[in-house]
Amino acid sequence: MPPRRSAGALRQGAGSVSGNQRCQISLQRPVGRRGLELREGSEDPVRLSRLASQAGVTVKGTDPELPLVIRVDSRETQKGEGFVALHGTKVDGHRFIPDVLAKGASLIVCEAAAYQEEWSSLYPQCAFVLTPERCEFGLASLASAYLRSLEHLRETIAITGSVGKTSAKNDTKALLEDYFKLHVAGGNYNTLIGCAVTVLAAPTDTEVMLLEMGANHRGEIAAMVSYLPPTIAAITEVAPAHLESFASLEGVLQAKSEILASKNLRCAVINGDNEMLCTRAEELGLPEVIRFGRCGEVLFARERLSWEKDHFTVRAILTGLDGLSFNLSLPLAGVHQLYPLCCAIAIAGRLGLSSREIAASLPKCRNSAGRGEVRLSESGAAILDECYNASPAAVKASLAAMDSADIPGRRFLILGEMLELGTASVSEHGRIFERALQVSDLLYLFGEEWKNVEGAADYYYDSIDALIEAVDRTRPGEGDVILVKGSRGNHLERVVKALEL
């Protein structure tokens, strides 16, 4: 790997600005790539059999080349794709192997005990990967072997955090994709299976692998890191989430810090405003730490939020890893979105991009569906779609945005319950309820957890349909803003869809 340019070298380069001098950067698309040049001529293909012995699995039937598209849902598996038969909480995926074979699947990952010898003769187009243990571990072992085989791979980046990890992943993708042959986890692929499937689908000329790692229990991130060790590990935040499993904030910190145990770790990128996290990073004696936030090496300052007709706009002054400061103006859902954005900027800076180059790609960093995207109803009301997930920290940040922006009309708050908080659920929902009363003109609550909060009954709806009808009766219109936020299990996307009509 070529040596990374130091921040000092960047500052002394042509066109750079020394120290923390602030400037307005022209947002012109840079030309060129930072990726390694591929060798001339064709390379030997990576075949499944080459990885099998390293992964401790057996291959029957054909011997396909990688990359491979592998599905975990038999209903989504198409002709020519692979299927992994997982033991679900309710259904054993091995039951659906005949179905996907009939559809023309090219690969089946199953437990050795479940394999039937006649399958190879009946379906000669298919390769069968037989695992001696549960399929997720065999699949992860294959992914681990494939990751090691990628000759052009420069960095494996993994991002975790209580909030903001998907936004940070998306922002990192936006900043890096013009400079590297980048392969990125899609959707919500942040489990061991999701990461393994992502890696196995990577083109052989991948230079940068970008993964997202989530956890509901201790040890989950440690398992991902053991199979797919990142060279750069990022933690966006440590906050109360999944307390039912982690018990305390210290438990959350321990779980997220598992990503820092990677045997290949060269750099940790962490939230510099979280004292617990900074202390933990210092205790671990990591090879390199880059902090982002209001404190650290990648900074935001003078942040402010405004409402502009039909969307929020965040303005701030950002300082990159090379010490160059520049102005930011983006349609983000609140100033809290600066944290995942600065996480991405820190990662891009660590890979050698200057602040000028980063600034050129910033307009691509936008909120996605379920994570702050603004939609407009036919009546002109703005719908702030935050229905993908919710934790106390995330809900408080969204309420702060609704409270601080100069919204011309009414503030509607549609709040689903926050799941997996364990014994802290009543108190956390109570705090959110009190804050929501201060912020909202109209408040609507949905989900069983609100029933235990004193005073919440007057705002509670026991069905999505009843909630939608109640909102419709108020006739939201131009100038009104409707925040829809709750845990994924609330299915509040139904509310967003209904309000758009």
UniProtKB/TrEMBL annotation:
UniProt keywords (A-Z) are: ATP-binding, Cell cycle, Cell division, Cell shape, Cell wall biogenesis/degradation, Cytoplasm, Ligase, Nucleotide-binding, Peptidoglycan synthesis
EC number(s) stated in the UniProt entry for this protein: 6.3.2.10
Q: Name one Pfam family in it.
A: Mur_ligase
| Role played | Involved in cell wall formation. Catalyzes the final step in the synthesis of UDP-N-acetylmuramoyl-pentapeptide, the precursor of murein.
Q: Does the keyword Iron-sulfur apply?
A: no
| Mur ligase N-terminal catalytic domain segment(s) | 70-116
- Which NCBIfam families does its entry note? murF
Associated pathway = Cell wall biogenesis; peptidoglycan biosynthesis
Matching entries from InterPro entries are given as: Mur-like_cat_sf, Mur_ligase_C, Mur_ligase_C_dom_sf, Mur_ligase_cen, Mur_ligase_N, MurCDEF_CellWall_CoF430Synth, MurE/MurF_N, UDP-N-AcMur_synth
Residues in domain Mur ligase central? 159-348
| Cleavable signal peptide | none
* Compositionally biased intervals (Polar residues): 15-24
Q: Report the main location listed first in the record.
A: cytoplasm
The reaction(s) annotated as catalysed by this protein in its Swiss-Prot or TrEMBL entry are: D-alanyl-D-alanine + UDP-N-acetyl-alpha-D-muramoyl-L-alanyl-gamma-D-glutamyl-meso-2,6-diaminopimelate + ATP = UDP-N-acetyl-alpha-D-muramoyl-L-alanyl-gamma-D-glutamyl-meso-2,6-diaminopimeloyl-D-alanyl-D-alanine + ADP + phosphate + H(+)
Identify the PANTHER family for this entry. Answer: UDP-N-ACETYLMURAMOYL-TRIPEPTIDE--D-ALANYL-D-ALANINE LIGASE
Q: Which GO cellular component terms are attached?
A: cytoplasm
Q: Where in the cell is it found?
A: Cytoplasm
Q: Which GO terms describe its biological process?
A: cell division; cell wall organization; peptidoglycan biosynthetic process; regulation of cell shape
The enzyme's first-digit EC class, named in words, is: ligase
From the UniProt record, which GO molecular function terms apply? ATP binding; UDP-N-acetylmuramoyl-tripeptide-D-alanyl-D-alanine ligase activity
Q: Say which species the protein is native to.
A: Pyramidobacter porci
Give every Mur ligase C-terminal domain span. Answer: 370-488
Which residue ranges are recorded for the region named Disordered? 1-24
Protein name as it appears in the record: UDP-N-acetylmuramoyl-tripeptide--D-alanyl-D-alanine ligase
